[in-house]
Structures are given as C-alpha cells and as structure tokens.
Hints:
By secondary structure, the protein is of the alpha+beta class. It is about 25% helix and about 30% strand. The protein contains 2 helices and 4 strands. Residues about 85-90 have low confidence and may be disordered.
Amino acid sequence: MARVVVDVMLKPEILDPQGKAVQGALPRLGFEGISDVRQGKRFELEVDGELTEERLAQVHEIAEKLLSNPVIEDFTVRVRSGNPDGQGGDADGHTGGAGA
Length: 100
C-alpha cells in the first residue's frame, strides 16, 4: 500500500482572500516578517497494491478532475515514503493543473 499526497494551491495570479486575512492577522498577533500567505488544500490518498505508473497517472486524473479546479488551481502529487503515520520523506513531486 502506498500513500500519495496531493497539494492544491490557487494559481499565483488568483486572489487568495483567506491567505490575505491570515497575513493581516499576523502582525496583530505579534508575528512580524511574513510578507505573503497563500492558503491551500492537502489530500492524502492510500493506493491499494503497487504504485505503478498507471496508478500514479490515475491519481493525477483524480487530482485534475475532482480535487482541484484547473482553471484557478495548480496541484502537486507526491509519493509518501517512510512510515504510514506520515513520519517520512516525500519522493517524486509532480505538478499538474492547467498551464503547469
């Protein structure tokens, strides 16, 4: 069994109101030196069996068709290595989405 992580972020040219709200709150909470904040989504998928190129391509299709809006968002697909509790490194980052 393999774990694949899909990170979805708004494209840089798309306004991120939630990120701006967090950025505005930081100085009021005493945190200085943060010049920008972008908010995103993270999905972890457990893939049964061996993670083949075909299965990885299927995960990319899932990310493009269901997990992200390719008009305004980009996504990255990473294969988790190490322990099942997430205490490990990542391998093979792949970027997707329209224009990526």
